[in-house]
Amino acid sequence: xxxxxxxxxxxxxxxxxxxxxxxxxxxxxxxxxxxxxxxxxxxxxxxxxxxxxxxxxxxxxxxxxxxxxxxxxxxxxxxxxxxxxxxxxxxxxxxxxxxxxxxxxxxxxxxxxxxxxxxxxxxxxxxxxxxxxxxxxxxxxxxxxxxxxxxxxxxxxxxxxxxxxxxxxxxxxxxxxxxxxxxxxxxxxxxxxxxxxxxxxxxxxxxxxxxxxxxxxxxxxxxxxxxxxxxxxxxxxxxxxxxxxxxxxxxxxxxxxxxxxxxxxxxxxxxxxxxxxxxxxxxxxxxxxxxxxxxxxxxxxxxxxxxxxxxxxxxxxxxxxxxxxxxxxxxxxxxxxxxxxxxxxxxxxxxxxxxxxxxxxxxxxxxxxxxxxxxxxxxxxxxxxxxxxxxxxxxxxxxxxxxxxxxxxxxxxxxxxxxxxxxxxxxxxxxxxxxxxxxxxxxxxxxxxx
Length: 450
Ligand SMILES: NC(=O)CC[C@H](N)C(=O)O
Hints:
By secondary structure, this protein is α/β, with parallel strands linked by helices.
């Protein structure tokens, strides 16, 4: 019998795991069976709607403190290739799926997902009615949860989850940041991408990156945009960063409650105006906090690969990858500047009103001058990006590096390079042109002629 047939046969008789239970703090109970490491874990329950890219999700350090339910029903069917990992260790607390595939089928697969999860001690449960779970979380909102394969008693788990710590108020960035500064070397480019890409350009910009739990693909994209990247711990003093004489400062994604990451945003406050700054996700929230903004907790967050965002400057819609549970309250940054906001003098309604007006509104911030709303989420009208008009800084709430997800917003890495070149039009890039020059086709053409 061939190796493949043997593996398929093995998959046919999938072992049934021990009973497991997921209990939410509001008393909802979801039952399933253990399918990876045994144990009992506590975290905020959230769901991700990506159809693929489960390893990137599982290894995204921004999931520290969270139990993730995948809405796509079968997870693990193309196995695991660690070149896709976004960090060396999964930081999530637990994983909930409908069906975990034990017999992957893909030429890149080096290991099955259940084996990977077990090797990394990740508690996971399958057989859960994930559609019911997601509807519940969508209606009732994010909340604390416990996932257990060792105790399946409802009353006992409910008592424990109600005693567990909330994600709100926790500085989880400190738990996944680097311990000391290091220079990022882009040496882990997956073969699947390497064949599609030209070699990275020679570095033109020295960039200091605050590492609050940075995804590897973000750093990789910075290298591809021409940056020589030095990562620094989340609480590095601004003076130490400026002593590196960087051409730009990057603020990474990261887990947990942004309000609790004071050690980063108080430093960002001192960097703004002195050096070009670009932030992604938690980095966007850090820039907003540095400018005195209010941050709100979203009812159930945005996590997936198909969130429509409008770029209000170009009026193009980008389909974006997202992973966040908190968001910037744009009006809290300052009063509208009517002459730069289509004559509108007061904030009203959700931010989609600017889509209808065809205007990218501008507020006057007490500390840093004029700030423009550049991007809006078309699903719920939340703020997705801002650009400072009087100092060189901009940020987005979503993920231009995707991993997993669509690459429409890759142009933001090009924009950061242009910002460091001092170009005033740095944000006005044709996304179709940029995709051709970036991750998608141009390199592939070269590679195929090589
Ligand atoms: N991916 C991220 O950087 C997430 C930012 C923040 N922890 C949030 O949930 O909103």
